[in-house]
Amino acid sequence: MIKELTLFIALLCVSVYGQRRPIQVQPGQIIRIIKQESDISPDGSYHWSYETENGIAAQEQGQLKNPDTMEAQGSFQYTADDGTPIQVQYIANEGGFQPQGAHFPTPPPIPAAILRSLEYNAAHPEEDDSNRPNRIG
User: Which residues does UniProt assign to the signal peptide (predicted)?
Assistant: First the structure.
């Protein structure tokens, strides 16, 4: 289970980076790893990290929550083609892979009229029609 989750995250990082190479990288250029750590403990917990000379970095730590459930937290960063720094933090557990990053799209704000309606409904539960019997008139 640990190996599969670690492999999934590593492949995700490689996939994301492979789609968005920094401008300074030339075909055939060798990018050196300047820092790398990895440790797997007997209890199933682990951590790994690496950093490359062109600013790519990733780290993850994980532990068994119970014999059947693993949880991992981590992050990775790189520079997009347009020079934008990309940073992603994530958690992976029974709820799936849950990434967060400032560059991800966000939903539009709730319109003011709908927000006022929701606030009114929450403040006046006694007026909720769902608890009243249907009347045919």
Answer: 1-18
